[in-house]
Amino acid sequence: MTTTPYDVAEHLRTPEESAAYLEACLEEANGDAAFIAKALGDIARAKGLSQVAYEAGLSRESLDKALSGEKNPNFDIILKIMGALGLKFHAEVA
């Protein structure tokens, strides 16, 4: 029997599933912006990276860098990506 690595992007089929996944990641992140960027990368892979890059007005390379989880992307880029993914931020009292 062979095993394959789990890829969450294969399970994010609807905008609602993507939003629930991002919400869970935001709760677990403890302020780690790179962790959130990686979660957005998972959602972007589920939608299609080229499509997300186009809709965000970014090159595919810029999108890959921003969502790699290796460093914290600029907030304006995150907002563009969120818009391309059909997601939005909301705030609530802690």
How would the blueprint of this fold be written?
Layout: H1 15-28, H2 33-47, H3 49-56, H4 60-66, H5 75-84
Helix pairs in contact: 1-2, 3-4, 3-5
Account of the protein in words:
The structure is a single chain. This protein is mainly alpha-helical and 94 residues long. It has a domain at 32-87: 434 Repressor (Amino-terminal Domain) (Orthogonal Bundle), CATH 1.10.260. It contains five helices and no strands. Helix 1 packs antiparallel against helix 2 and helix 3 (49-56) packs across helix 4 (60-66). The longest helix is centred in the middle third of the chain and has 15 residues, at 33-47. The protein is globular and about 45 Å long. The termini are far apart. The relative contact order is 0.16. The model has no long low-confidence stretch (mean pLDDT 91).
